[in-house]
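Objective 1.3, modelling of assemblies. Example input:
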Amino acid sequence: MNPSSSWHAPEVYRPGLDGPRMLFAACVLMVAASQPSLASDVRSASMLANTCAGCHGTDGASAGEYMPTIGGLNKDYLSEVLVDYKTGLRSSTIMGRIMRGYSDQEIRAIADFYANQPWVSNDRIADASLIHAGAQLHEELCVSCHEDGGRAQDDDSPRLAGQWAEYTNYALENCRAEGRGCSPRKMGQRVMNLSDEDLASLSRYYEGEK
Amino acid sequence: MMGLTRRNLLKGAAATAATAGLGFPLIGRAVPKARVVVVGGGYGGAIAAKYLHMADPEIRVTLIEKNPYYVSCPLSNEVLSGERDVASLTFNYRGLTRRGINVMQDEIVEVDPEQRFVRGSSGNRYNYDRLIISPGVDYRWDAIDGMSEKVAEQIPHAWKAGPQTLTLRKQLEAMDDGGVFAIVAPPNPFRCPPGPYERAAQVALYFSHHKPKSKILIYDSKDAFSKQGLFQAGWKEHYGDMIEWVSGANGGIIEGIDPGNRQLIGEVDEYPADVINLIPHQRAGALAQIADLADDSGWCPVDQRNFESSLKPNIHVIGDACIAGAMPKSGYAANSQGKVCAAAVAAALNGETSPAPSYVNTCYSIIAPDHGISVAGVYELKDGQIVSVPGAGGLSPADADARTKAVEVQFALGWFANITSDMFT
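Predicted structure (tokens):
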């Protein structure tokens, strides 16, 4: 691919990012400030979580196609995924190397921080011709866990609607390659026989649902 | 701290009253809790300003940067290969002004740590309760005989992205097939430890398509370098014998340059080249030198918990210029330090001690369009020093498969999109 054609100057102001996050940051500070008796070597949730933003965007709202938006995801889901990166149960290029730097308690604090941020869908315009087949696959294979066009989420099923298609596609490819070894197993069973085109149209479908 | 804030406020009130000829107090106006001036709007400073404003909107944050735009060093090696243009690396500060950060274009020429103000070349004076500087690097021209800032216009270092990057690109375009391109890599510590070696790969990418008989020689002061094994394997895989690295022990130490004859003068031998990219020895940026924030090493000692200068109180130094334990001089390290510093300054201005810090570095290098590599580090404070968390971090695996190598390029581009969005939106 040609990087310069796919790259956009991040000029778009996203007002959805402002108020609640500021309040939350202020609350974290005030809580930290009002409890000086806490051991001073306990690192706050925002201190730990802000180090992720360089790759995942401020408050987890990603501006890069291959980096997932993590702000607003379910806390228990995030926590489990991050621990799975740490133990190697979930494969990764770099996340395992990073998560091994944190205790499980710190990982829960990071997950809690991002779960409390607003979800910000990517701002790309959906191409209807790419997503038609994806909608059908969704109804056939995915809707039982990823309800409401992938907008619903719980501790097992992440929000997919509005996630970058490149990331979703990459995660689906990983799961397909692992087949029954994919965690959760039911994901592996459902995607292991899908084609590249199937994965691409599913990813585009979810991206377009916002 | 609070006494000085009040004094500054009173001074401001007196000035307003005097100008207006009225004795009205500042009722109804938003009186800032404190004033923080951040100098330098790059990977460290832009982040410190933004995260300080996010942590406590009652603190008035002024970001002072001498240029109206910022050009990113990370990914600028792709301009040399022709994969990318400078416009794609260029950002403005409007996203920060929209947040309520006061962004000023000015070049700071004076720092007064006693009276707590900085002065710009404009003549403007900026008072502060806390000062954060992120001045980047400056060059030690005297370390190589015959080298100077003037000579660098012809023999570009291109180690700050911008006009010199384009000069070097033009020289590479003008070079005949079969020519020799020489990179002189500086001694540690310096900005972007993998940078010279990624640069060799990106220029080799260009040569392999347009000037395949050409050679790239890296003359190094060092006997080892960042991501060395991964780079050397990647060079070989994609570019055969085009890139040759000459270690310090094997004659790579360069002591002088004859710019007229395009010749490098080494300890033992002289090396002619058609295009030379001499990356100079480095030290903390000029502002750190002006303000006496650097020690004999040329870099700025700081309290690594909050980046407050060990030499001047109430001044914090972040990014490439500071001495930050085990952290490298990288864009992501500056980002991480900016956040730790912002949290510490917000705490201090609220009468609290610095919070326990957490730091991360991630750094991608692009060897070929389908081959990226990375290094990551997770850091903590131990006995006042930033140290790597044992068992965490490290390099991409040497035996990565083709898909992993390709996706690491995509992650490099996503890294860039997000770290710049973290800075500028």
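Chain A touches chain B through 56 residues (CB under 8 Å).
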